[in-house]
Amino acid sequence: MPAKKRCQLQAEPRCNQAVLRLVGQCPHCRAEFCGTHRMPEHHSCQGLESCRQQAFEKNKAKLESERTVASKMAMA
């Protein structure tokens, strides 16, 4: 039986917990983490900033496409 994979957190002290099988891989940096460090915010993910920028641009484009212009009513 192969040894369990361990958390790849690079900070000190090293984490020695086992990697989660289903949700332990970060979608941004592809490293594997334990339940404590699996979120990008918790392991200082390098791909997090580019992900945030892409989400910002996507949301900005959607909001600009839905922008409405209020017509001014003439007061008599």
Automatic annotation (TrEMBL):
<keyword id="KW-0863">Zinc-finger</keyword>
<keyword id="KW-0862">Zinc</keyword>
<dbReference type="InterPro" id="IPR035896">
    <property type="entry name" value="AN1-like_Znf"/>
</dbReference>
<feature type="domain" description="AN1-type">
    <location>
        <begin position="1"/>
        <end position="53"/>
    </location>
</feature>
<dbReference type="GO" id="GO:0008270">
    <property type="term" value="F:zinc ion binding"/>
</dbReference>
<protein>
    <recommendedName>
        <fullName>AN1-type domain-containing protein</fullName>
    </recommendedName>
</protein>
<dbReference type="Pfam" id="PF01428">
    <property type="entry name" value="zf-AN1"/>
</dbReference>
<dbReference type="InterPro" id="IPR000058">
    <property type="entry name" value="Znf_AN1"/>
</dbReference>
<keyword id="KW-0479">Metal-binding</keyword>
